Amino acid sequence: MFGGVLNSVAGGGSFITFPALLFVGIPPIVANATNTFAACAGYLSGTYAFRLEVLKDRNNLLKIVLLSIAGGISGSYLLILVSEQQFVSAIPWLLLFATLLFIFGDSINKRLQKASNNRHLGGVVAFGLGVFLFCVGVFGGFFNAGLGVIGLSYLAVAGYKDINLMNGLKLLISTCASAIAIVLFVFNGLIDWYSGIALCSGHSLAATWQQDFRDNYRRLWLDASLPLAPLQSLATFSTTPIYNCWI
Question: CB 3.0 to 4.6 Å from 171: which of 47, 66, 187, 213, for a disulfide?
């Protein structure tokens, strides 16, 4: 339930639910696919709750949806191809990347804004942001834990400032990348349905009240919790028995 609340408010709830699935003995790749399935319900309901905010950026919505779906397909297909050992080995680096990107997102954005003002570099910056968004989708399809954090990082780098708009777009990106990934996971039998449905109910319930969370508390939550969430997950994951059995 708390993981669903964290996802609804800012992102990062999977840093709680993913280690929980590992703790009860579910293999890492199946735990990741199950976590993606469970989180997608919250993403969907959250996107609907923020639909009016999302429509403010209607000029970019098609690009966001298509690149997120393309990335989600690529990432989920990559997950299906890798071994359990390869997946487990990649997790700490993915979490570290999400953490650093969130911390330094504003600094990167300032540099990109300066570069985009140069007529010769403006197109390069726009292309780079498109590639970045595609990579966010790949990240989400491959490893759902951290998708909200890295999605917000992309939006910060892209120059978004409105926290409600950022939350809505983050949820839209997460929905597109996760929903298409779930299709591939279902066909490959990678979802633990009992655990997934149990988690799914918590995510959906939490998303029903997220838009009532006052903006000042939302910003305080973002600033205080997100940089620490991936580090907390690293500590949790490294001490989980199922992790130790795979390494």
Answer: 47
